[in-house]
Write a structure and sequence with these properties.
- It is a single chain.
- With 197 residues, this protein is mostly helical.
- The protein has a domain at 58-186: Tetracycline Repressor, domain 2.
- 69% of the residues lie in helices and 0% in strands.
- It is built from 10 helices and no strands.
- It has helices at residues 8-22, 29-36, 40-43, 50-73, 78-95, 97-104, 111-116, 118-132, 140-160, 170-186.
- Helix 1 packs across helix 6 (97-104), helix 4 (50-73) packs antiparallel against helix 5 and helix 4 (50-73) crosses helix 6.
Length: 197
């Protein structure tokens, strides 16, 4: 019998906290059960499998990260919005590395859960909304979204892995990278003939 008060949300939060401490790939159902003080079998009343738990962690993290980005970018446009967006993204990745990794890793997510979760959908809306300040339309919007995501994720992943050994601080490089992205977005190259969404 499941411990009183144990819910899918509590199991997910415990898994997310553990992921931040030891890494998403290191999380096991047994570790989560020990953290909650229950037997492994009790968890399966609330989550179907480790993959299901990882999917729930990804949705939780997407919601959290999106809320932070929305708050950071509210009332901002252009470069101010870009910098606020990027800094909120990077700060979340630093503070919650396991949860962040769940948002960047292909994970099987229950379609019903995904349909109810506002985070992923809201993340797309925020990103496209911020980029419309640069007067971009499709297919350039999608290309720009991919450029930003690649830059932000690539930077924080290298940073987390200790990949920046040069004496110049990562913060200085981050700031310059955002200057460069702003310049690119302001002067986006014209689409090639025949290019379409």
């Amino acid at each position: 019998m499941a411990r009183a008060g144990l819910t899918a949300e509590r199991v997910t939060i415990a898994g997310a906290e553990l992921a931040d401490e030891v890494g998403l790939e290191q999380v096991t159902m047994s570790q989560v059960a020990r953290r909650l003080g229950v037997k492994d079998a009790s968890l399966y009343t609330h989550v179907r499998s480790l993959e299901d738990l990882r999917g729930r962690i990804a949705l939780l993290a997407a919601d959290e990260k999106t809320i932070r980005i929305a708050e950071a970018t509210a009332g901002r446009a252009g470069k101010d919005a870009l910098v606020a967006f990027a800094n909120a993204w990077r700060d979340y990745a630093h503070q919650h590395p396991g949860r962040y990794m769940a948002t960047q890793t292909p994970i099987q997510i229950d379609p019903e859960l995904a349909a109810e979760a506002p985070g992923p959908r809201r993340a797309v809306e925020l990103t496209y909304g911020m980029l419309r300040g640069y007067r971009l339309a499709e297919p350039d919007l999608t290309d720009a979204v991919r450029l930003l995501r690649s830059t932000f994720h690539g930077f924080v992943a290298l940073e987390a892995a200790g990949g920046f050994a040069h004496e110049r601080s990562p913060q200085q490089s981050w700031s310059r990278a955002l200057d460069a992205l702003h310049a690119v977005l302001e002067h986006w190259p014209p689409s090639r003939e025949g290019d379409s969404a």
